[in-house]
């Protein structure tokens, strides 16, 4: 006699701050709340893929959650943790300056140009060491993030760049700020600095070490890139509980678009490649719009959990 068929039953996996009903997702598309079914804010396979989710992160998340016969709601922070863990181990590093502030190294030749060799991938496994190298141009004028400079020294911000203090450029030289220039609105638009060290990675000969390390991009060779910064599409933990209209909980600020200066190698990134922009977050080259002429990167996830999203 043929064996009796076996029936397996398992509950539906639900995430907070999310709706997964096809009817409700279709409404988001039809009413123009999102651009398409593969919008990076959508909890669809195509949307998650475009956002930068990796197959491994989703499998690891499913292993963490397990299988239950009853329906349940899982904290989306678990999915985000699985994603961060995978990307931290596997995403190549790169540098992008989101709020650029020009730094001019006054004791460096105007035509100075050198390529600094950097590791794109940290050695995370002693058994299988990985070290992908890239060349990053360094010039007399560079950009750092505005948040890394302060007009006056403060113990609260002792690792910031400020006049009379030193800081190390990532994989580069130690600089000391001398003064700065403001525009008519009182905003700092340029920092003047001197190069303190002449050998990459060395400490100053006078023993006065820099207080921190900042990322940077060459002003002459950096390229503009469009960054699409995504937040949660729905700002309620249970947007459709008890028959509520989930559309009332749509976050109107779930997408913002900014322009950043990125290192030139990122223009050649293949679509769907996820990078860790050092000190900024994980970003993926958009599968539709990213080109060498106009690089476009989507925020996959921040480097750490944003507590404001759960409050």
Outline the structure in words.
It is a single chain. The protein has 311 residues and is α/β, with parallel strands linked by helices. It folds into 2 domains: 18-90 and 223-310, Glutamyl-tRNA Synthetase, domain 2 (Orthogonal Bundle), CATH 1.10.1160; 94-218, Beta Barrel (Ribosomal Protein L25, Chain P). It is 14% helix and 29% strand. It is built from 4 helices and 18 strands. The longest helix has 15 residues, at 76-90. The model has no long low-confidence stretch (mean pLDDT 93).
Number of strands: 18
**Share of helical residues:** 10-25%
Cα radius of gyration in angstroms: 23 Å
Order of helices and strands: EHHHEHEEEEEEEEEEEEEEEE
On the 0-100 scale, what is the average pLDDT? 93
Question: What count of domains describes the coordinates?
Answer: 2
In short:
This protein is an alpha/beta fold. It has helices spanning 22-30, 45-51, 55-65, 76-90, and strands spanning 13-15, 72-74, 93-94, 96-97, 100-105, 113-119, 133-139, 141-145, 166-169, 174-182, 188-195, 213-214, 217-218, 223-230, 255-262, 274-277, 281-285, 296-301. The chain folds into 2 domains: 18-90 and 223-310, Orthogonal Bundle (Glutamyl-tRNA Synthetase, domain 2); 94-218, Beta Barrel (Ribosomal Protein L25, Chain P), CATH 2.40.240.
